[in-house]
Amino acid sequence: MTTHAEFWDRIAPKYAQKPIADTTAYETTMRRTRQYLAASDRVLELGCGTGSTAVRLAPDVAQFTGTDISGEMIRIAQGRAEAAGTANLTFATTQAFDLQPPAAPFDTVLAFNILHLLEDVPAALREIHAQIKPGGLFISKSGCLGGGWPFLRWAIRVMQMVGKAPHVGFFTTRQLEEMISDAGFEILETGDYPAKPPSHFVVARRR
Fold first, then answer.
1. Which residues, listed in sequence order, are joined to residue 65 by a DSSP beta bridge?
2. Rg (Cα) of the chain, in Å, rounded?
C-alpha cells in the first residue's frame, strides 16, 4: 500500500468518532457481503481502519484478520474487538498486501474504500489475487470518480495541498472492473452503494 501511515495515524481518533455518512448504503454493503461468507471461511480485510466492519462480520466466519497501515487505527480496532468479545478476530499493522504463509491463502479478501486510495491499483490487485485460494472471493467497494464529479475532484485536490486528504485515484466503474478482471478474477456481482457519487461494490472469484 502506498498511502501514508502518518496521515491516517493523525486522523484516526476523529475518524473513529465519525458517523457513517450513508447508513443505507453501508447496510446494503454488509447484507450483500454476508451472502458470500460461510461459517468455515478464513477472511482477510485490507484497510480495515478502526475495525467497525470487521467487528460486524467476524461472527459470520471462522477466522477474521484485519490489517491496516495505520498503527493508531489498529489500536482503536483492537479495543473495539475486545469490547465486543470477538474471539476469532485479530488485527495487524502491515505495509503491504503480501502476507506470507501461514497467513495465506484466504477464502475471502475484503477491501472496502481502499482501492481508490492506492497509487498502483493493478499491482495491488495482483497481490490480493495471490492471497486468495483458487475459487475464493474478492469483495470490494471503491469510490469511482473518473467519470465526472469535477467539483468533488477539485475539492479533494485542494485538501491534498494542505495535508487534509490522502492520495485519491480517479477511475470509472468500468475501469475498476477491467482492472479486477485483468488481475485474474471473474466478476460475479456489482452494485453502487451509494449510486452518486458511485461507490462501486464488486464481488469477484479468483480464477
1. 44, 90
2. 16
Could you read off the pLDDT of 147-179 as tens digits, one per residue? 777 777 778 888 878 877 888 889 999 999 999
3-state helix, strand, coil in the chain (%, to 5): 40, 25, 35
- Work out the average pLDDT over 20-48: 97
Residues 6+ apart with CB under 8 A from 25: 193, 194, 199
The Cα–Cα gap between 203 and 3 comes to: 24
Q: Is the pLDDT of residue 205 over 50?
A: yes
Dihedrals phi, psi of 191, to nearest 5 degrees: -175, 165
Contacts for 86 with CB less than 8 Å, ≥ 6 apart: 55, 58, 59, 64
Q: For 51-71, what is the mean pLDDT?
A: 97
Task: Yes or no: say if 138 and 204 are a contact pair by the CB < 8 Å rule.
Answer: yes
For domain 5-206, the CATH architecture is 3-Layer(aba) Sandwich (3.40)
Alpha carbon distance 198, 148 (integer Å): 10
Q: What angle do CA 67, 69, 71 make, to 5 degrees?
A: 90
Q: State the alpha helices, DSSP H only, in the chain.
A: 5-17, 23-34, 52-57, 71-84, 121-131, 150-161, 173-182
If we measure between CA atoms, which residue out of 92, 76, 67, 79 comes closest to residue 9?
Answer: 76
Sequence ranges of the domains in the chain: 5-206
